[in-house]
Design brief:
Shape of chain A: globular
CATH topology of the largest domain in chain B: Aspartate Aminotransferase, domain 2
Number of strands of chain A: 3
Distance between the termini of chain B: 45 Å
Radius of gyration of chain B: 22 Å
Number of strands of chain B: 13
Structural class of chain A: alpha+beta
Number of helices of chain A: 5
CATH class of the largest domain in chain B: Alpha Beta
CATH architecture of chain A: Alpha-Beta Complex
Shape of chain B: globular
Oligomer: heterodimer
Number of domains of chain A: 1
Number of helices of chain B: 15
Helix content of chain B: 40-55%
Strand content of chain B: 5-15%
Chain lengths: 127, 394
Amino acid sequence: MYNERVIKEFSEPQNAGELENANAVGQVGNATCGDIMKISMIIDENDVIRDVKFKTFGCTAAIATSSVATTMVKGKTIDEALKITNKQVIEELGGLPSQKIHCSVLAEEAIKEAINDYLQNYKNKKK
Amino acid sequence: MRKVYLDYSATTPLSEEVFEKMKPYFTECFGNANSLHSFGRDGAYAVDMARRKIAELLGAEPNEIYFTSGGTEADNWAVKGAAWARKEKGNHIITSAIEHHALLNTCESLEKQGFEVTYLPVYENGIVKSEDLKKAITDKTTVISVMLANNEIGSLQPIRELAAIAKEKHILFHTDAVQAIGSVPVNVKELGVDMLSLSGHKFYGPKGIGVLYIRKGVKTDKLIVGGHQERGMRGGTTNVPAVVGLAAAMETAVRDLDKNAKHIKAMRDRFVSAIEKEVPFVIYNGDREKRLPQNANFSFEFIEGESILYKLDLAGIACSSGSACSSGSLDPSHVLLAIGLPAEKAHGSIRFTFGKDTTPDEVDYVVGKVKETVEYLRGISPLFAEFKGGIQNV
């Protein structure tokens, strides 16, 4: 069902964990549906994502997309990160089974949610 | 890499001994069992012998045994055939909420044809209550179908009691015994059932072959129409090697039942007590006593079943999951929801099923890997972090 890249990202995920001094946190999904993704970021004064970590409750695809999506946004500005779509996440993984597409949507949403949190609760308050 | 198979309720390997008995019917004895010449007669003889053997093992008569393509066809035929044949009498069918999809989707398709179906509830232990059946029966009820043993949580249903209630009301009773053969004694007379389904590959026989027992005198419609095979009741060229294989495997399974069940239960119990001791926050799903000896089903809280399954697969371990993510649907296992498990806990369920060749060493290896996997996945689970945070704040 899954390609080798998906299995690799699942079994040795990058950026797993939680950032204690994060200034951007996004959580999407719910336990009843079987998927929760929580992304925490440290965004610097130039709006560059310096560090990012994820915690995910979910299937193989959810964990693999979390790993890839966090890697994709690391070092990017928030504007660049907001442009990342679930399609790009799937491409990076070399494809996902059709019933797992929603996992990649979750990753895109979690990133947006985290950046929104930064914009609303951190950046604007600072000003 | 080390490989451990703990998915014996999904399927079993064909035994070498059975394979040897099947071989000649693929090659030299290839005749169509319906042909009149000697090639055909050789096949027909083998099928006849197999039918007699199976009948004897089930406590039935040979002319009550019908070969099908497997358990799914047997379930479809049993319930559809009986419901159709009794359409004039009534349109109400009773089954349980924890049936296999072969049965549930059969009922669903009958609902589309205007039949009404009552799904009996089960309780925390996964067992149907006979009072519920009594209450569900109406004067329109024509067919009742309740499985003998559940495939996900192994719960054993009180079939004898349920069948007796049906008999009193002159309602046809069918049971899906696919998981039961070779694990618990199955005798159609003792159970008092009118129809019973079984499948070859669940007891070290071949895939693609099953049996529907239909008690003599029971009127039913055909499901598969075609030639005059199976006394005109089921069309299609008889799969002679598979029939021979099913009978041979069943003979061994019934003969060795006590010995195998004892060993399998010992392996299962070793596993269950080790998991309960070594892994915190687990729920053992199903009844502890009224249960198939091969079945263990756990919910591991705060994590999701499909990821557990794949992580164990990477360690060479085969098991199955009741998570939505492994079934391709959005809902977790209907069986786990029916026993009252909340969806998030049903998502974290894994079924381990043990076989006659499972060793204590394999069990211990799997326990270690399960522990590792659960710790790892909880380590990256936001739910577990939340839970731990909650404890610390108390």
